[in-house]
């Protein structure tokens, strides 16, 4: 397309354009696939899943497949240097548990998720949708996804 | 300041402005303080340092205080579920080692660091400066710093 160069009427400052551009970036276009584990899984199994799937957080689901917790590499490392046997600790006792879980939805703005990741000092948010009286996990948003969004914004702008 | 609204001549498209704005963001304004460990530290000590300092990566320095490696939570978790005693494994045997370390300098562009973090699939880059025939660690850039930069860019734009 022909670049719009020179005099043009926008009614906006350049920064308003940037702000609108960023606000239009929705979670659905940047989320990754979630990696889930059952509450009854052992800490050892969880570490293996993390390495196999190459993720830093697992989303934990109950028997109905609904979100019940989030398990981080940090939770597992804390358990690993403790005195308990990783094979006999169920992840349900070391995970962060609902309702103390921060989550987002696929039509949320990426920038709002970025602010949550920073303000709550967390690594990953489950992307959820309502199912019955609980939440079904449909995606994953991490600082990696935010970093990719930032790179894409810069590249798109540079084209 | 009065907003520039309406007809204005820029000689640039809005996206060029955004691109320039992003390119001007330098590492020095977004880096965190580095957390370093000695090569002779044990894996157990390294885990404790990570928890105390609340970081996901340690930069390892040699006797001259120069960068010799990077140690991640993932390296420690792998060791923790192995058969070795965390108290008797020096971090020098489990860390990523120079010259296989990706680093950056304080006058690099944040966007270039973001691209490195994504393309090399790493969590943290040491910010370094040349010292003698080695590199001194003066900072830390992670996906958290990139996420903060993204939020700041959006907020600045929204003002």
Q: Can you say what the CATH homologous superfamily of chain A is? A: CBS-domain
Count of helical regions of chain A: 5
The CATH architecture of chain A comes to Roll
The top-level CATH class of chain A is Alpha Beta
The average pLDDT of chain A is 91
* Poorly predicted ranges of chain A: none
Strand content of chain A: 15-25%
Rg result of chain A: 19 Å
CA-based shape of chain A: elongated
Order of neighbouring strands in the sheet with most strands of chain A? 2-3-4-5
Q: What is the number of beta strands of chain A?
A: 7
Largest interface: A-B, 56 and 56 residues
Keywords (chains A, B): CBS domain, Repeat
Organism (chains A, B): Sporolactobacillus putidus
Protein name (chains A, B): Transcriptional repressor CcpN
Domain CBS (chains A, B): 30-86, 95-159
What does this structure look like?
The structure is a homodimer. Chain A is of the alpha+beta class. Chain A has one domain (about 25-159): CBS-domain. The first copy, chain A, has helices spanning about 15-25, 45-55, 75-80, 110-120, 145-159, and strands spanning about 5-10, 35-40, 55-60, 65-70, 95, 125-130, 135-140. In chain A, the strands form 2 sheets. The first copy, chain A, has a 4-stranded mixed beta sheet with strand order 2-3-4-5. In chain A, strands 6-7 form a two-stranded antiparallel sheet. In chain A, strand 3 (about 55-60) and strand 4 form a beta hairpin. In chain A, helix 2 crosses helix 3. Chain A starts with 6 loop residues before the first strand and ends with a helix. Chains A, B: This is Transcriptional repressor CcpN. Chains A, B: Keywords: CBS domain, Repeat.
């Amino acid at each position: 397309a022909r670049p719009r160069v020179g005099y043009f009427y926008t009614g906006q400052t350049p920064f308003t354009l940037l702000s609108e551009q960023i606000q239009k970036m929705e979670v659905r276009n940047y989320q990754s696939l979630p990696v889930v584990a059952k509450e009854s899984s052992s800490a050892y199994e969880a570490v293996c899943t993390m390495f196999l799937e190459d993720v830093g957080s697992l989303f934990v689901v109950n028997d109905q497949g609904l979100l019940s917790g989030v398990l981080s590499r940090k939770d597992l490392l804390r358990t690993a240097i403790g005195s308990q046997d990783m094979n006999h600790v169920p992840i349900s006792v070391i995970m962060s548990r609902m309702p103390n879980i921060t989550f987002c939805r696929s039509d949320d703005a990426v920038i709002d998720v970025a602010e949550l990741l920073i303000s709550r000092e967390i690594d990953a948010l489950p992307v959820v949708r309502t199912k019955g009286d609980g939440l079904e996990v449909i995606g994953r948003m991490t600082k990696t996804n935010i970093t990719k969004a930032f790179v894409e914004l810069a590249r798109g702008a540079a084209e």
